[in-house]
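Final report, Chapter 2: Outcomes

The project's central promise was a pipeline that accepts a single protein chain and returns its three-dimensional structure in a standardized token representation, suitable for archiving and comparison. That pipeline is now operational. To close this chapter, we reproduce one record exactly as it appears in the project archive, with the input sequence first and the structure output second.
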Amino acid sequence: MRLKPFASGEAPARTTNRPLTVLALLLGLFLAAMEMTVVSTAMPTAVGDLGGVHLYAWVFAAYMLTMTVTLPIHGKLADLYGRKPVMIAGSAIAPLSIGWPIASTLSGRLLPRIGYRAPIRGGLGVAACAALLLAFLVRPGVDLWVPQGLTFLYGLGLGFANTPLLIAVQSSVPWERRGIATASTMFSRTIGGTLSVGILGGILAAALLGSGAPAGTVDRLLGPGRDLLPPAVVRSISVALQSGMERILWAVAAIAIAAFAASLFFPALRVPTREQEIAASQDQGTGRGR
């Protein structure tokens, strides 16, 4: 399948494969149920070890709120462009959310054997290569499996690096400060994500501004009056969007390369064993008792 827009006046051929559609829906429901089951099973242990029973319900509230917020957005996009284009767009980036947890699980199991530095360097290196290939290869007409495969690799790289980085931060502080260290790490990640989304969105807005389209044209393109726009205006906006997305992909590649370069300076540390952590916590408790 190719990422190719339909020509003006050309209607897409409608084909239906109900068994595959039902299978895809069942698989999606299975993954959602499995994820919720894992979270539900792990929560009592996590709360028992870390405390915070009064915040227990917020985990599930945030989970349900996230799913609820995205539904109207997807529904509106489906009304504007049809269900199939929206599902194709989602399928191009969905592999990222599959590769990430797989790699996180594997890196967590490998940490005691190989330490922090190898998975961090390897993961960020894979992410940088995937981001570069995305910037080079994703163009109109490219096969859909290209962004799917590259986003899967990108998720694998981030998953391999994410778990060691978080555990390294937690292991670098005493037990009583691990909650603060974890919260600070997550807060920094949230701030970085917010800033990057704003900056990359500004890049896309600047590309649209440079298209020369009349004021309000983009709003009409997303509304019911899009069919009344002249083809030349739609074409200029399409070219501007393509140019903006190319710049965004190159910016993401630059960020990934910078992260990989920073990982080269990560020290060679070994993961402390359970016995060492218990002994360290007992020593800290003895010191406080004195």
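Archive annotation: The mean pLDDT is 75.
This record, like all others produced under the grant, will remain available to the consortium after the project formally closes.
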